[in-house]
Automatic annotation (TrEMBL):
Keyword Acetylation part of the UniProt annotation: no
Keyword Cell cycle: no
Entry keywords, A to Z: Metal-binding, Zinc, Zinc-finger
PROSITE patterns reported in the protein's UniProt record: ZF_MYND_2
Any one Pfam family match given in the protein's UniProt record, by short name: zf-MYND
MYND-type domain residues: 178-204
Molecular function in Gene Ontology: methyltransferase activity; zinc ion binding
Name of the molecule in the record: MYND-type domain-containing protein
Lineage: Eukaryota, Viridiplantae, Streptophyta, Embryophyta, Tracheophyta
Amino acid sequence: MDPSSTSPCELDREFAPQIAQLLAAPPLQSAQEYYDRLIQSGKHDGIRVNFSSKHGKGVCANKEFAEGDLILKDRILVGAQHSLNKIDCTVCSYCFRFVGSIEFQIGRRLYWQSIGSNSDCTNRRHYHGSDAGSSASSSGATKENSNTLPEEALRSLINGNLSLPFTDHFGLPRVVACRGCEEERYCSQSCADSDWETYHSLLCTGSKTDPSRRSAIHKFVEHANGTNDIFLVAAKAITLTVLRYNKLKRQPQKNTDESNFSLLMEAWKPLSMGFKKRWWDSVALPDDVDFCDEDSFRQQIRDLAYTSLQLLKDAIFESECAPLFSLEVYGHIIGMFELNNLGLVVASPVEDYFIHIDDLPDDEKEEAEKVTRPFLDALGEDYAVPCEGMCSFFLSSCPPH
Ligand SMILES: [Zn+2]
Ligand SMILES: [Zn+2]
C-alpha cells in the first residue's frame, strides 16, 4: 500500500517509537536464548531451533508435521477453532480435544443442522481477502439435508438419555463449562483454568463480566464472525500479551525496577518471535480484483482491520498496553497468522465410530445399524468433518523459505 497514506489510528502516531520496538525482529542471541529455554522447559524432544543470520530462523525437527496431525497443545501459542466449524465439532477451547461423548457430538451437530436448515443460510459467504481466516471452507451444516430427525431424539442424544451401540469404545472427556460464559467448553478443569489465565478472562461474556464490556465483546465477535474470524485469533494474541503483562506487573520486584514498557516488551516476547508483515500488505490479491484496483483493495482490508480493532478496544483496551492496540501492531499480528497460515486439524472420533460400526461382523453390524443408520444418513457425507481452525506455534512460525 502507498506508504504515504496516513493511518486512521491515533495510537500509531502517539506510540510510533514503542511500536517500532515491538515489531523489530528480536536480536539473534535473545531469540536463541528464548527458544533454548522454551525447549528445556517443555517436552520438545528432538526439536531444536537453529539460527543463523544468513538463513534466518528454521525449525529442525525429526519429523515434519503432516497435514491432519494432531499438534500437541504445548506447541500451540495461540489457536482458535473456525467459527462455523463450532457447529460441526464440539472441542475443548484450550487443547482442541473432542469433548462430551459420541452421542453429544452427533446430537449437537444435527440439532444445529436442523436449526440451520430452518433459517436463511445464504449469508454465509465470508470475506474473500484471506484464505487463512475464511471460515467458509468448513461446515457440512450449511448443506441442505432432508434427513431431519425428531428434535426429541436429538435432545436425548445431547443430554445422555439415548445411547448408541459401541460408543463406550470411544470415550471422550466430560464437558467442563467456562466459569463465566456458555460459549466455551473444556475437556478438563485444568484446560478451563489455563484458558482463563492465558486468554479467556478478558474475552468471557459470562454474567460476571460487566454488562457494557460484555456487549462490546459480543459486538467484536459478531463482526469477526460476519467478516473474517482471523480477528478472533488475533484478539487472543492480544489478550495473551495483556494477561502476561498484568502477571509480570504483580511481581513486586518487577513493579519497582522496570518501566511499564519494558514489562510490555517482556510480555510480548512469545509473539515477537513470529515472522510478521502488515495484513493488508501481505494478503494475495484475489483473482477477481483488477490489478489497478489493488490500492483500494488493500485500503479496504486495512479499514476492515481498523473497524475490528475499534470494537476490540471498546471491549478490552488497557492504557498501560496502549501500543498493542495500535492498528500497526494489530495489522502485523493478523499478518502473522495470514503468512504462517497454519491450519489446525483434529480428526473426528465420530468418523472412527462409524468406521468401527462398518467393520463389525455382519450380524452385529446389522443389529447396530438399525440404531445408527438414521443418524449417519442425517449427518450426510460430511459425517467425518474434523475440527478445523488456525493457530500459531511456539516453534514453527518461521518466515517462508
Ligand atoms: Zn483441553
Ligand atoms: Zn467464558
